[in-house]
Write a structure and sequence with these properties.
The protein is 39% helix and 28% strand. The protein is built from 7 helices and 4 strands, in the order ααααααββαββ. The chain has a 4-stranded antiparallel β-sheet. The radius of gyration is 20 Å and the shape is flat.
Length: 153
């Protein structure tokens, strides 16, 4: 159970964050006493268990476990950790609709920004027979309203 909590903490900053952003949205909402006990155990361990260290799951030979942990670690963290290189970027002007206080529609032009990053598959521990696919790619997106990085997709 401690290992599960360590993995959950790769994505979630608190038990409440896990409960609202994952459990209530993505898990089957079991109401059995047994499942409630499991959820209570996860909550009781939350503050005493550290998030799993990257090296702990990255260096494992169990590919399924590694992929499961990657999904919690996040593409952005992974690309940063492996020092992915930006190879391209593009800005695209798009039309947004906003409404004034009277409910009148107004067309606004905003700019979406995208960056393409690549990382060597060897750094990911992936080896493709024949070596034709040397890199993996991720796209980083920027919110036109806040100008903040919204993460990788």
């Amino acid at each position: 159970m401690r290992k599960l909590v360590a993995i959950l903490k790769l994505r979630h900053s608190s038990f409440q964050n896990f409960e609202t952003r994952e459990y209530k949205r993505q898990w089957e909402n079991f109401e059995t006493p047994f499942f409630t006990q499991i959820l209570d155990k996860i909550e009781s361990l939350w503050d005493e268990v550290e998030p799993m260290k990257y090296e702990e799951f990255f260096n494992t030979e169990d590919r399924n476990f590694k992929l499961f942990c990657f999904s919690y670690y996040g593409v952005g963290n992974l690309m940063e950790k492996l020092e992915a290189q930006k190879i391209n970027e593009k800005e695209i002007e798009v039309d947004y609709i906003e409404y004034d206080k009277n409910g009148n529609q107004k067309l606004i032009k905003k700019t979406n920004r995208y960056e393409v990053h690549e990382v060597e598959n060897q750094k990911l521990g992936m080896f493709v027979w024949g070596g034709r696919q040397q890199y993996s790619y991720a796209v980083k997106c920027w919110c036109p309203s806040t100008k903040r990085n919204t993460g990788y997709g």
